[in-house]
Amino acid sequence: MSAWPEFLPRQLLQTKATEYLLRFGLGGAISAGAWVIASVYGPRVGGLFLAFPAILPASLTLVKKHDGRRAAADDARGAALGSLGLAAFAFTVATMASAGHGATWTLLSALLAWLIVSVGAWCLLFRPARSAELKEKLTGESGEHHHAHTGTRNSPVSSGRNGVT
Fold it and tell me: SS3 of 21, please?
């Protein structure tokens, strides 16, 4: 199995309608909660809660149920790296907007910052050549043994789910 992010459309058919309802319901509830907080405490405080990845908790629960704990952990790592990119996006927007740059250039620059930071962090931390080494440093385990359920080497990306969000 590849360590690169994958999209497998046939897996969409394996997800039950109730799981989609959980995912979107929890995401909507989190967004509504952020709106309530913004209404009570103002947009600066509410904005902090809007940065919370609304569907991540439900998604991780479903990934763990379908693909196991390791796959859910890999998704959580990918979300963390995406959050670094989001911080770069926000910093770029704040810096360029306060300097008076136009919206188009500001958003294009912020998108580029997000892309560079997110993909760069993923490549730095999870590229296949470093994954076994990183796993060994973090856990003290050797990457030489295989997992029966995946048939892949013991590494943080053996499930191939380290997507950038």
Answer: helix
